[in-house]
Amino acid sequence: MRRFVYSKFKEGSSGRVEYGTKLFSYVIDTRPTTSAITKRMRRYRKATKLIVEDHEVQGGAATFKGTRLLVHHIAALLQQGVPENELREDYPNLTLGMIEAARIFAQAHPRRVRPRKPASRSSGPLAAELIPRRSV
Known about the structure:
Oligomer: single chain
Radius of gyration: 26 Å
Number of helices: 6
CATH topology of the largest domain: Arc Repressor Mutant, subunit A
């Protein structure tokens, strides 16, 4: 069945594929998913037009074009709950489009950091009991 469905999509089907017999029939409609993905890709492409990663500016970190504002810094401030109007007061060059681009870019490109150590490594044992050695 999977091969049949993929072959229909490769043929350029309209986004709706029907397969099966009277008892077992399947209908797959990808139009809602396709339209949602298309909208998100448009927003992402629009956001990336405002962002540049130049090794000469901020060591190659993602910044807004024509500024030295770090995209992940603005996204982190937004995530912490800083209001947009306060950000625009603190950073006069920041536009509403840049704020939206920071949200989209940070979601698509999360910061790469070293994973946290498990809690068991940072704390001591829950209980300790000294067991004496047997003498031979």
